[in-house]
Amino acid sequence: MRPTSWMAGRRAIHATGDYMATPTRSKCGFVGHVQAYGWVVDMGDLERRLQLVHVELDHRFLNDVDGLGAPTMENIAAFVWGKLTDLPQLHRVLVKRQQNGEGCEYFGPVSEAVS
Question: Which fold has domain 2-106?
């Protein structure tokens, strides 16, 4: 699992006009065969990609991040997944709020309708 962290604000759903700053951490897990160079995923490439996600989310109001939608943990996890979707080894994205340990694991979009 490769972690990255950020501090961001969001407007509460039942907002009184106040903003909340929420320290958040995400981790990305990968599954796959070891490549010719001895790794499943190039950690240098992954670090560069996660830094781009960090820049998009850190010290921002999450409500205002293009493409994120409502700043729920589920949407944040899907947003991070979307930034890494071209890595076929991507297995899951875990998002956790550091202050209370609440979290969400995202394993990618559902490929067929759930009944």
Answer: Tetrahydropterin Synthase; Chain A (3.30.479)
